[in-house]
Here is the input.
Amino acid sequence: MKIDRLIGIITTLQQKKTVTAPYLAEKFEVSRRTINRDIEDICKAGIPIVTTQGAGGGISIMEGFSLDTTVFTEQELAAIFTGLKSLDSVSYAASAEKLAQKIGGASAIKLADNMVIDLSSCYKHDLAPKLDRIKHAIGESKCIVFHYCYNKGEADKVIEPYLIVFKWSDWYVFGFCRERQDFRMYKLRRLWDLRITDETFAPREIPEEKKQFGLHMTDDYVVSAVYDPSVKYRLVEEYGPTSFSQQEDGKLYAQWGFTTQKGAVEWFLSFGDKVKVLDPPGMVEIMKSTLDSIKNLYET
Here is the structure.
């Protein structure tokens, strides 16, 4: 990735003071023209780069420019590599290790070994190709098409992709839906037959409110319930250790808000016989009717 290369060039200049364009081109496995463009981008970012001709000449950071003793401390490099390693979990490219070898960050990689972040869950073989295709489509401003399965059924979608989003412990593509004429989020695990079309699009300005993912999700549907102590770990995991109170009989009482009634029903059903809904009355009746329907499935 270009950002990896820019970081590597800056760090190399800090470590070696002066290098040549051919050296950087060979080190980062790109052309000299690409290195020249990278140097221009680094200058635009506010780091003054000087090139000198003749024997002993080359590329260097302007003398007197303050970047402390190094561009990045060992701890900062460790944080960068930790982030890159997390991206490696959803990619077949070993960006972290490769970048470490190029800029001499072996000690930082060792520090980064203290933390493991796996963003792929259990489906890297399916997720990585989707992410690669979407990233390519975004870079080329090309539309993507895919088959999507959601609560309203199944449909073929055509969107202009803008962002890849990791949120709510899952991956999404954020784009402009041609059918709905609006920005939408699509969960990657619910889509398949993803392909890039030949149709290009002019990038649109994304409204700020559309970038506030989940802003429409409120917790207005409040439900009270008591839980068996055996599921305390789940309550702590979802809402924290102070989100409930223990009753005299040992059961755990909690009152929480949910985004939708349907979501609340699914939540409580996941506890089996370890929870009893108390309020509101309408929710109690829905739980009863849902449980009756489940019971009927096994009696027919």
The mean pLDDT is 85. The radius of gyration is 27 Å. DSSP finds eleven helices and twelve strands in the chain. Residues 124-140 form the longest helix (17 residues).
